[in-house]
Amino acid sequence: MRASRTILSRGDYEMDPKEIRDNSPHPSPVEPRELKLESRFRFRCHEGIACFNACCRNIDISLTPYDILRLKRRLAMSSKEFVARYTVPFEMDADGMPGVKMLTKPGTSECAFLGEEGCTVYEDRPVACRYYALGSMAVRKKDSAEVQDIYFVVRESHCLGHDEARAQSVAEYRKSQGIEPYDDMNREWRDIVLKKRSSGPTVGKPSVRSLQLFDMCSYDMDSFREFIASEGFRNMFDLSAEERQRLAKDEDALLRFSMRFLKQVLFGEITIPLKDGAREERIDRRKALWEQRRTEAISRHR
Ligand code: SF4
Ligand code: SF4
Questions:
Q1: pLDDT tens-digit readout, 182-200
Q2: I need a surface site. Which of 78, 99, 112, 142 has the fewest CB within 10 A?
Q3: pTM across the whole model
Q4: CA 52 / ligand 1 centre spacing (Å)
Q5: CB count, 10 Å around CB of 247?
Q6: What lines the ligand 2 site, CB under 6 Å?
Q7: Could you give the angle at which helices 241-249 and 221-229 cross, rounded to 10 degrees?
């Protein structure tokens, strides 16, 4: 069975751990007990343990926007370079919502960042690695708008950490693994993915352009930085000079802003002010462009 150092929250929003387990086509390592922040569980991972790094040798890790930001900064490369060199694309849903997974070494299921001594990017390892052997899931209970985080234990046979004596609460474990800033930075993104999924066919199939925007806003902060510096963006949105400078320098702020932009584009949740008349001007420009193309097409056929 494939080890799943992955956060199930990205894929099973509407289910609880028991449902995930019951619906899994394979024997599932997910324990059916739903954990809250104060729930306690037994687990300890340390360098001296016999299974050290076993969980990094057979991975299936979906990356989040903040994972990519941290890793590309650590490796001093652009987000585009990082995604091209260290990830593989996949579709998160039937509508083709783009996702990225951690690359494995050629011909193996071993993480590309596993070295002789262990994880070579440990301080910036993805949030799925930090959570393991817990899983986390954002659940919107039926008939409720409220999104709630729940946790569960993922117990895989290769992982001996479950036999250790240390017990801790989920909150203590999250703190010890540096998970809080990751969840904080990814929360808006998770909500967008969840909202998109729950709206399903009611909002129709997303356009190619909206999927491209989702891809850029999620995984390519360098292109997004260029995008908001473009003339088209500046003509459309009313940002102060200070705000533009802040976004040019602070990548964490840029990622938060990109989520606001996505919500505005995908769901019409306006939080970035538009310039007076910008929307009308844009519609007029598009109409003029279409008219020009139509006229050119007609004259070609004559
Ligand atoms: S990033 Fe590090 S901790 Fe995560 S699977 Fe790879 S080697 Fe293991
Ligand atoms: S205890 Fe579990 S999480 Fe830690 S190294 Fe072993 S397999 Fe990985």
A1: 999 999 999 899 888 766 5
A2: 142
A3: 0.85
A4: 11
A5: 20
A6: 45, 49, 51-55, 132-133, 158-161
A7: 160
